[in-house]
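Each record in this resource describes a single protein on a pair of labelled lines. The shape at a given residue is found from the number at the same position. The record below illustrates this layout:

***
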Amino acid sequence: SIPVLHLSDASVEIGEFDVHLENGDEAYLTHPVDAVELLASVKSLLRGRQAQRQFSSFLEAAPDAVVIVDHEGRIVRVNRQTEKMFGWDREELIGQDVEILLPKRFRDKHREQRAGFVAHPSTRPMGQSAELWGFRKDGTEFPVEISLSPIPDQTGILVASIIRDVTERKLADERLRQTEKFQKFILDSIP
């Protein structure tokens, strides 16, 4: 599709054109433009669209759930793996507080921690000293690992959470511990 530019030679306040952006225009120029400037603006918009398509492709190809939230903790984007892992459709998640994906007993504490992260953002794993749990739409809980990455944005900061379901690894670890415990029992039983 062709980018939509709102062109005007009128001297207006920037805020007056916000409605055009909300209605689908991608940019506006409020001064007389020649063909070169217009072409440059269109090319810039098309490059931005290409970058958005590449980012979307990357997001959808990720093997883990990816949840992107704004500085207030509202979900602004998720990938297909998020839908599969948590059982929600993306349309149900967009606009919700990210805490919808946590068991209720962790939500208040998470809000506090989230505010601290936004104040001092850094790429890091989450919950290094505690086990983390996800909460599915059907009410079931499951163990997760989460990594956080701040993404600078024109509105402030977005936070990308990469979430991995570690249920199978936890079960395998438990089976290994049980096997080792049984082997020790057998060896200790030999006179």
